[in-house]
Amino acid sequence: QGPVCTNLGLKPGQRLTVKGKIGPNAKSFVMNLGKDATLLGLHFNPRFDAHGDVNTIVCNSKKVEEWGAEHRETVFPFQKGGTVEITFSVNQNDVTVHLPGHQFTFPNRLNLSVFDYFDTQGDFTLQSLSWE
């Protein structure tokens, strides 16, 4: 588990930019964005080789202990041992995920008006975090 941020206060129209390094033997890593650790509006999980997925991004939401339906993206712009910059733009009804050369949106299933919580887990070392 990497650093945990609380009280981010990200509202629609704002964005969070995450920069970091992916482990050389990475299996997967996770970035969670939500209200707190139990209410996750976006669980972002690039999988190099984990849980039966290879080079797939799996996104989901979590309400207390209840996961939603998984959303899969097959564009996979990550390299083991590489660095990456990912930007999460918060909109009224969804979050836009900006990756190198690709972007997609994930619905705000929990109708969160503010995203206060962010954490990273897995084979990823956070280098910088900025929001505007």
UniProtKB/TrEMBL annotation:
Tagged with keyword Aminoacyl-tRNA synthetase: no
Record InterPro entries: ConA-like_dom_sf, Galectin-like, Galectin_CRD
SUPFAM superfamilies xref list: Concanavalin A-like lectins/glucanases
Molecular-function GO term, any one: laminin binding
Signal peptide: none
Record key words, sorted: Lectin
Galectin domain sequence ranges: 2-132
GO CC terms in record: extracellular space
A matching Pfam family: Gal-bind_lectin
Protein name in the entry: Galectin
Organism of origin: Illadopsis cleaveri (blackcap illadopsis)
Gene name of this polypeptide: Leg4
